[in-house]
Write a structure and sequence with these properties.
The complex is a heterodimer of chains A (294) and B (360).
Chain A (H helix, E strand, L loop, with lengths): L11 E3 L11 H10 L3 H13 L4 E4 L3 H9 L6 E5 L2 H23 L2 H12 L2 H5 L3 H12 L8 E6 L1 H9 L3 H15 L2 E5 L3 H11 L5 E5 L11 H10 L4 E4 L9 H10 L4 E2 L9 H12 L3
Parallel strand pairs in A: 1-2, 2-3, 3-4, 4-5, 5-6, 6-7, 7-8
Chain B lengths: L2 H4 L13 E6 L3 H10 L5 E7 L3 H9 L6 E2 L2 H8 L3 E4 L6 H10 L3 E4 L7 H14 L3 E3 L7 H11 L6 E9 L14 H4 L3 H17 L4 E7 L8 E7 L5 E7 L9 E8 L2 E6 L2 E6 L9 E6 L15 H13 L9 H19 L5 E2 L3
Parallel strand pairs in B: 1-2, 1-4, 2-3, 4-5, 5-6, 7-10
Antiparallel strand pairs in B: 7-11, 8-9, 8-15, 9-10, 11-12, 12-13, 13-14
The chains are: A alpha/beta (294), B alpha/beta (360).
Chain lengths: 294, 360
């Protein structure tokens, strides 16, 4: 049966800063993490963002996120940013990559372990060769257990993982990941990257079409690799919808200014993070309007 | 040169001056990071990978890299004849591997710290001196645009003579007994100072020079390596540097550096967030009064992002040097000065905070 492509989200509220990963100033990060330490506060913000026109939230599994989602009476569409990279890096410095994976297996439920075993068995050759294309589905199985399938609308592979495979020019990794996510989760398959120009060029060359890509786009060119001009050129050329992040260039411009630049230069959607948003009501209303065709 | 570039002196489009054959030894976290970067720098041919732990070799090849893998680094060097070798093992293996690569005529890049003891670092630096090959150490903060801008301003003398400096580096990493080589002093050489804030010591050495003496107190909360250190260092000018570091404080998911300089002409505050200057009189491109630079105000010349611009620029700068270009700031000679500062801090902390000389 031919798959009907899911509609590309246009506005997602990002929660990556809750992991500590942000280019915003440290004071702003502390303010946001303090504000959202309580899951109730996060739940209210998610709920409001959806009411104001957001298509969902882009977030990695964490205790506070899980509690926030379970607080809500109506489920919030989740685009899961997987894996939770800072937690993985912290754990792997002590346990190694294999030990870190085993720790997650140990805390997974029986159902998740069964799915993990099936996913591993169907890719046994690649797993034995340590092929990233075979290992990442196992990682996604483990990390996605925090989300209910009813709320999971998409799986977005975190930039740290995407960019490792991109540097290795691992075409089959990108092909397999897209195929796996669509089949296994019946959800959008997407990649986050901090090397947007490189990724769009490679995906075009390989003929790989994820449902969307998330990458930095802002008027100051911050994190636009290889160069802002090259990213703009790829945005004009690509057939893949791109959602812009790092809209405020580390706080140098306003959210609305960053969004305007991104949309004018070919972004099809926006992912403002919690640290980027100062007035959710006003800013999300304006962003929603700018994303609505006239 | 644009005004933005002038603030940092970081070179745009930094790369080797000719094609170069490169190998990576040690395929842990930093080995993977360097392999990723090397695959992205123009004119780099990755000719070989090595680690004594074969599964790590499979992992890196599983990322798509096709360079041959060797468990034995001597075989790697013999078979692939690299012109530059990145040594990314734990510190107690640095010296032997560096000597092996230098003997084979390769330039070397050694991850920080240079070695796990001052004696090993001195021996490594002596080998570099004997062979006369380009040799750098992984103090990448010199390539973070905001710190490069601070260095540029200081060296241009905007503050006048620096009289006092306070510096800190914090990370939320260690909140209980931990395993692994980093927590074994015989292999790593120490705790938070060696593994984290040696980066800050490098910045201080680069910007101000090597102190002549130090006194320090440390705290060992969880194991055999120090978790927190407070130190005071004195420069030959008499200026003092206060230094604080901990990897056992909450609120720092990523390491954060703050340095405050006070000079005759004003103050400068530099951190990962930006640079602020308050000057009594204008100096060079800086006006009197308050000025501020943020990350987005500065050039971001790396062509591939791996945890920011600095790692790419660091590797590209080393390979630029290895192919006949200019020497970067993070030479092995500079890293040896950092090792002397680490050694003085540890000697003082172990000896009831007495003032000790930084070995010349």
């Amino acid at each position: 049966m031919k798959r009907t492509p899911p509609e590309t989200p246009k506005l997602l509220l990002g929660a990556e800063s809750l992991l500590g990963f942000t280019r915003a100033p440290r004071d702003r990060l502390l303010q946001v993490t303090a504000r959202f330490r309580e899951p109730e506060s996060l739940a209210v913000t998610f709920s409001k963002a959806i009411q104001l026109g957001a298509d969902g939230v882009l977030a990695s599994p964490s205790r506070v996120l899980g509690e926030a989602l379970s607080e809500l009476r109506h489920s919030v569409p989740v685009f899961a940013l997987l894996p939770n990279v800072p937690e993985y890096v912290r754990d792997s410095s002590e346990h190694g990559l294999a030990g870190t994976a085993m720790k997650r297996v140990a805390r997974a439920g029986l159902g998740a372990r069964a799915r993990l075993a099936w996913t591993g068995l169907t890719r046994a050759g690649g797993v034995l060769r340590s092929d990233f294309a075979a290992l990442v589905p196992l990682l996604l199985e483990l990390e996605s257990t925090s989300f209910r399938s009813s709320e999971l609308r998409g799986v977005v592979l975190a930039a740290a993982i995407t960019d490792l495979a991109l540097a290795g020019k691992h075409k089959s990794f990108f092909e397999n990941t897209v195929r796996f996510v669509r089949r296994r989760f019946r959800a959008s398959a997407a990649f986050q990257t901090h090397n947007l120009g490189h990724l769009l060029a490679a995906l075009a060359e390989w003929g790989v079409k994820p449902d969307f890509v998330v990458g930095p786009i802002n008027p100051r060119g911050l994190m636009m690799k290889p160069t802002p001009a090259a990213v703009e050129a790829e945005l004009r050329r690509t057939e893949i919808p791109v959602l812009a992040k790092e809209l405020r260039a580390g706080g140098a411009v306003s959210l609305v200014e960053g969004a305007r630049y991104a949309l004018e230069h070919g972004a099809k959607g926006l992912v403002p993070d919690l640290v980027d948003v100062e007035d959710l009501n006003a800013e999300f209303k304006e962003l929603s309007q700018s994303l609505t065709p006239a | 040169m644009s005004e933005r570039t002038a603030h940092t002196m970081l070179i745009d489009d930094l790369k080797p001056l000719r094609p170069i054959r490169v190998a990576v030894v040690g395929l842990g976290k930093m080995g993977v990071a360097h392999t990723t970067l090397l695959a992205s720098i123009p004119d780099v041919e990755l000719v070989g990978l090595s680690d004594h732990h074969a599964p790590l070799g499979r992992s890196v090849r599983g990322l798509g890299h096709r360079a041959p893998f060797f468990e034995n680094p001597a075989k790697l060097i013999d078979k692939t004849r690299p012109e530059a070798v990145f040594i990314c093992t734990q510190p107690d293996a640095h010296k032997a591997l560096a000597e092996m690569a230098l003997e084979a005529g390769a330039a070397i890049f050694v991850e920080k710290p240079l070695a796990h003891t001052l004696a090993e670092a001195e021996a490594l630096a002596a080998a570099v001196e004997r062979h006369g090959k380009p040799a750098a150490c992984g103090y990448n903060l010199a390539f973070v645009p905001i710190f490069a801008a601070a260095h540029h301003a200081l060296r241009a003398g905007v503050l006048g003579q620096v009289q006092q400096t306070r510096a800190s580096m914090y990370l939320s990493q260690t909140f209980g007994p931990r395993k692994g080589w980093m927590y074994d002093p015989a292999r790593s050489g120490g705790g938070v100072v060696t593994n984290v804030s040696s980066h800050l010591l490098f910045l201080l050495q680069w910007m101000l020079g090597t102190p002549v003496e130090a006194r320090a107190e440390g705290s060992w909360f969880f194991g055999e390596v120090e978790d927190e250190v407070h130190a005071m260092m004195r420069l030959s000018s008499g200026a003092e540097i206060g230094f604080d570091s901990s990897w056992s404080v909450p609120g720092y998911p990523y390491s954060a550096v703050v340095i405050e300089f006070e000079g005759r002409n004003g103050k400068m505050l530099v951190s990962n967030d930006g640079l602020e200057l308050d000057l009594a009189t204008p100096s060079g491109e800086w006006p009197a009064g308050h000025s501020q630079l943020r990350e987005a105000d500065l050039p971001q010349p790396a062509r591939f992002d791996v945890n920011g611009d600095s790692y790419y620029l660091q590797d590209a700068a080393f390979l630029h040097w290895a192919t006949g270009g200019a020497e970067p700031p993070n030479t092995v000679a500079a890293a040896l000065e950092v090792q002397r500062m680490i050694d003085a801090i540890y000697r003082s902390a172990r000896d009831n905070s007495v003032t000790v000389p930084v070995k010349p």
